[in-house]
Amino acid sequence: MATITSNFTSQPDNFETSIKPLENSADLDPLVDRIGDSKYVLLGEATHGTHEYYTWRAEISRRLIQEKGFSFVAVEGDWPDCYMINRWVKDLPNSGSSIREVLQKFKRWPTWMWANWEVAAFAEWMKKYNSQLEPDKKIGFYGLDVYSLWESLENIVKYLEKEDPETAALAKQAADCFEPYRKNDSYVSAYRGMDQHCREEVVQLLREVRGNVKKYDDERESGLNAEINSLVMKNAEKYYEAMATFDNSSWNVRDTHMVETLNTLMDFHDDDAKVIIWEHNTHIGDARATDMAAHGMHNVGQLVREQHQESGVVLVGFGSYEGSVIAGDFWGGKMRKMELPKAIDGSVEKILHQLGGTNKLLIFDDHSPLKKTFKEKLGHRAVGVVYDPERERGNYVPSRLSERYDAFLYIDKTRGLHPLHFEPNGNLVPETYPFGI
């Protein structure tokens, strides 16, 4: 391995030998051992459009489901859309003839985050695995995010009209509050203009659904579906109201909602439930190990550690040196394949590249020299769904890596994932991508 040439501090003699190779599933053994009996495993990504992040997360998840008995996967996606995947992998009635049929219904931008071949392959594996299990033991796939206001409104009204007409009347009243703003999909305008009466109706609806959840029994998870759609409505109110203030509070509302949804899912499952979470590094890496904390921001990784550390929490970050990525030039823009430039000097990714152009696994155990070495604050790349490679230096988050994560997967060269072939409005696009996993 090459000598590090940066302002990185001097290393102990066994530093480089503590970094493990990462080429195949067997190389994940140290990570699986580190996870042990933990009930919460959070798997990150440095972009929302990288093939290898999705496939390595899928492989880790497969091993945890098979070897450790994990119960479900929860992702940074909308609840209604991901619930369609959940129904399909559990082979419930009228859930779709193929996973492609299900994923082509994903219309909210950025569609490529979940409507891609990598997710399709993992969902197909889940369905095959679930076919061997009893209905109450099948592995679930759920969305944690707060964006699906209109879809959640529609779903809960339709469902309650069939199952609970009295509560459906409350749902219709809540929906009426939002209707004037729907044509523009204007969440912020909706919450600026909404009066207190409408907000109280949303909260009352959630109370009613939670109180009646046990009688919603046409499918095992129907009550859960109704409850979380109501929760989305309640917390969307807080989220978009916070967005209208143009400060950091909307971030905290969103991540708090994702943890509240996660806790609802864990309560729904039995006491032995274990969860795998797929989200961006900025959500799953502990915010206290970055500059987010100085700005008054918290995130999912921090909250899960604070609330559930006694049950075992393992945070796993991801990063890469160079390659390509799927992203958009602006919010709502057409997805395209972009260059991911070589990492900047002094960054985590550049340092790991200088140790040899190979994939690496780092485990930050207390006894490992990596724990102390990566306590130094270093730049760590974070790419969102909107990306400009020409402004690359602005995409690095100062991070104490060994405090932000419990383990880190470094992929030296990555490539963009393989979206299913439609734009956000549902029209097919001419580009094709080979199926690869």
From TrEMBL:
Domain of life from the UniProt record: Bacteria
One of the GO biological process terms: response to antibiotic
Family annotation (InterPro entries): Emycin_Estase (IPR007815), Hydrolase/PRTase-associated (IPR052036), UCP036794_erythomycin (IPR014622)
Classification via Pfam families: Erythro_esteras
Gene3D superfamilies noted in UniProt: Biosynthetic Protein domain, EreA-like (biosynthetic domain), EreA-like, domain 2
CDD domains given in the database record: Ere-like
Membrane-spanning parts: none
PANTHER family named among the record's database cross-references: ESTERASE, PUTATIVE (AFU_ORTHOLOGUE AFUA_1G05850)-RELATED
Protein name as annotated: Erythromycin esterase homolog
Top-level taxonomy: Bacteria, Pseudomonadati, Bacteroidota, Flavobacteriia, Flavobacteriales
